[in-house]
Amino acid sequence: MTTFPDGFLWGTATAAHQVEGGNVNNDHWEMEHAEHSPFVEPSGDACDSWHRWAEDLDLVAGAGLDTYRFSLEWSRIEPAEGEFSRAALDHYRRIVDGCRDRGLNPLVTLVHFTMPRWLMHDGGWTGPKTGDRIARFAEFAAPALTDAEYVATINEPNLMAVQPVIGAMARRGEQITGLPVPDQEVAEALIGLHGRTMEVLRGAGSRPAGMTLVGLEYIDEGGGSEPLRAARAAMMDQFLVAAEGDDFVGLQIYTAQRFGPDGLVAPPVDQQTLAHGMERRPEALGAAVRYAAGVLPGVPLLVTENGIATADDDDRIRFTEDALRGLAAAIADGADVRGYVHWSLLDNFEWMLGYAPTFGLVAVDRETFARTAKPSLAWLGEVARRNGLI
Ligand code: FCB
Known about the structure:
By secondary structure, the protein is of the alpha/beta class. Helix content is 41%, strand content 19%. It has one domain (2-389): Alpha-Beta Barrel (TIM Barrel). The protein is built from 14 helices and 13 strands. The strands form 3 sheets. Strands 2-3-4-5-6-7-9-10 form an 8-stranded parallel beta barrel, surrounded by 7 helices. A hairpin with a 2-residue loop joins strand 7 (249-260) and strand 8 (263-265). Helix 7 (130-141) runs parallel beside helix 10, helix 12 (283-295) packs parallel to helix 13 (313-332) and helix 13 runs parallel beside helix 14. Residues 15, 18, 155-156, 159, 214, 252, 305, 343, 350-351, 359 line the site of beta-D-fucopyranose.
């Protein structure tokens, strides 16, 4: 039996815009409905988790997991600039309480990709007033999070800084085969916003706080060491260094990137998954955790996302089991990892790709919103109960 450290957290995650439904007041809704939108379909009702969150928590707790990660939707809490909704914040406070009532540790993300429309039209992430605005939002939200186990400031600022680059490539009609390098201005702006949010949370006596980063395994296919190093510096190193001194770093690991002398090398077609053509690479989890632990030896790590978009739930189990073996080996070699949170609880709105990629441990009927647990949910619950793999 491969075991995990005592007190290791086992959970699953969602994000507001991907599951709540009816988030008509954020930038993504607007982009989904724009002419020539790169989104294949709008988010619409999503999984109706705005109303069905209690059922979602029952599924997590019922399976034997002990942690639930979810996010606040800024555009509901501050629908117009400076106009705050106590009722919306209370909704999230009830979810935090609902977690605790069921024995679940809430891991709450303040910003998971979306921003209110008013912010989108007045500076966005790089705007000069956005630091003050995110600080004010965090200050308003913090009292609802006093019973959270962990608070994450911004979800994947390193991926958010890549999004404008992908958008520009798409507009030029260029083919996107792997993750391009982040836009440095956006990267620096988001690192600054994370810092402002941390200051507010610290001042409010918050629970342990940090950011979550997309993590990758970087593979040199031969002669690729220079482009690999440059890509990793832009995507990982500058963000990991910025997390020094935080209470934790969340890592969200799905795949690897391969490099040759001319840069990125696309994965073989038969290894590509249903989402973004990402390579199916369970080994990436252990590798990316080892790398982060090496750069930040003093900062506890949490796996805040890991999973696979597949219609084959047996393969989800195989993938996750292999990934967890790599994680256990990294921990045995000294990485300080405090928990594993699987993406995702539900089949949900996978951003530009819409509802086709299915990352869920639970299927959701697109018309009735009925939830049907897949075998992988019970399987992960068993792993959690054992705190290990047989
Ligand atoms: C991550 C996002 C998450 C989900 C997964 C598949 O980059 O944080 O919302 O879309 O990818």
